[in-house]
Amino acid sequence: MFIGPTVAAALALWISNASGGVVAIRNVNVVPMDVERVDAAQTVILRGATIESVGPARKASLPRGATVIDGRGKYLLPGLSDMHAHLAGPGDPPGMAEAELILFLANGVTTIRNMRGFPSHLVLRGKVARGELLGPAIITAGPGLDGQSAKSPAEGDFAVREHKSLGYDLIKVLPGLSLPAYDAIAQTARQLKIPFAGHVPPGVGLLHALDAGQQTIEHLDGYLEHKKFAEAVRHTIDAGAWNCPTMAVMEANLGLVDEAALLARPELEYVPRPFVDLWLKIRSYGNPPRAVSQRMHANRMALLKALNDGDARILMGTDSPQLFNVPGFSIRRETQLMKEAGLKPFDILRSATLRAGQYTGRPCGTIQPGQCADVILLDADPLKDVLNLSRLAGVIVQGRWLPRSDLQRRLKAIRERPGNYRRRAGVP
Ligand SMILES: [Zn+2]
Predict the structure, then answer these.
(1) Could you report the per-residue pLDDT of 249-268, keeping only the tens digit for each?
(2) What's the 64 CA to ligand 1 centre distance in angstroms?
């Protein structure tokens, strides 16, 4: 996913030409996502990076000089969030992280939470926020803390202070932490008012992590061990914790998707070949017997449904790019699995919009005046079929309109990089 200097220069030029002006979307069906509803025939006006007004199209007057988008027959939603992503870091090809940002945007993702931070990600976060680089807003964890990077309570305490002073948004906890080191991390994080989130280390356990104030639990860690779902769901709600279940990557991780089906995913053509080779290798070892994998997957699906039915707060996250989950496109895979788990479209969409706004505390995630001008335009109603999310007519990020043709052009430039994975001829 390396972008050459020419493409990078073109991107920079495009951004400097972008007006921080006014965009009006006329006569559109608004799916505001505060509650489940569609408001037909609305005109939405975005000024700079903020939604200025939403109201009936017949009453709206269009500001002079506005870029006008015909929204007839289309559906306007808040931009999506992928709350568990991994941007390329040191050791990855130069330009790869920037390309990943485009892959996210081209799939309607306007906010990402990066769950393994490097100093380069702090730089990217700033560039995107200032409008110098096109991409979703970035929230980033620091480097993950595990049994190696935080061997003792003192090291845990030191690491939290360091990550906070470097400017990371949250602390990432990983398996391998001892209970005393975990408790020291939790205590310092609470003291410094920086959230800590991530895995549930086996030595800590779900209930202790919830009681300690871990903000998000990734991958439904610790739940299957707990057995009593109802009790775990209640404990989760009482603790005010969030779940980021990452269903698609875990399904691939359990070896439950056939290799041929994985290799036929069209989005693999955006990925450097060595990544796909590595994923194949990772996938082929360490899997439990198929019957066990299937039972684990079924339990995960039942658990997600139980959390959702119990009104626990769920965040959509995909863990991309891990195991055949290509940034941005991974949202489609995750959506499909949440649907299979029995969640209704509104609840799935909410996990990537309203909930993400509540989690980050940013004024994003609904379509209302004063909210951020990150929205997506779809060709069909996602409340009827949530998979309509992929029928993207365009994206507005920080008030900038990127129509489908523009997104496709940017995607093509990334897809055509030499060294990317190519599907075998004859594979549809
Ligand atoms: Zn991850």
Answers:
(1) 888 888 888 888 899 999 99
(2) 46
